[in-house]
Amino acid sequence: MSEPARVLVLAHQTASTSGLREAVQARAQHSPATFHLVVPIRPHGMHKFVDPNHDGPADAEAVLAQALPKLSAAAGSKVTGSVGDPEPLMAIHDAINLAGYDEIIISTLSPRVSRWLKLDLVSKARGLGLPVTHVEARHTAPTEERRPEVASTGGR
């Protein structure tokens, strides 16, 4: 029996959304896989410019704590997680270099508000030669959970 595929999941504000859970569940049902969530540190306020690492780790750890149980339930097995570099592409590179992955799932906000999409993160991640699935959250109302749209490219 072959080893399960190792899937890197990159998310921050969308880490607990139903769209990402659905994408993880669909991937888990496709064939055996293990999942690892990386949450990039998100700098706040003026510290974005002065010290991009200030206050971010605690926020990212809180996102992990909230998202991991939900993603684990969706995957049907334990999803591991870690805090990553503030720059999302560097967080992907670091994770791949440290542990090696076979696929990537990137969860972003809608194009209207997503900094990651403005940085062309999905295309740049595809340039790494791994299959990339992009999950896009959409704002429906300020108090409602973001609704996803899943677009998959490459892959199994």
Polypeptide structure, described:
It is a single chain. With 156 residues, this protein is α/β, with parallel strands linked by helices. Helices cover 38% and strands 25% of the residues. The protein has six helices and six strands; from the N terminus they run βαβααβαβααββ. A six-stranded mixed beta sheet has the order 3-2-1-4-5-6. β5 and β6 form a beta hairpin. α1 crosses α3. The chain is globular. It starts with a strand and ends with a strand. About 7% of the residues have low confidence.
How many DSSP helices? 6
Query: What is the mean predicted local confidence, pLDDT?
Result: 86
Question: Terminal Cα separation, in Å?
Answer: 17 Å
The SS-based structural class is alpha/beta
Total number of beta strands: 6
Strand order, sheet with most strands: 3-2-1-4-5-6
Weakly predicted, low-confidence segments: 139-149
Main sheet specs: 6 strands, mixed
- Using only C-alpha atoms, the radius of gyration works out to 15 Å
Helix/strand order, N-terminal first? EHEHHEHEHHEE
Shape: globular
What is the share of helical residues?
A: 25-40%
Strand content: 25-35%
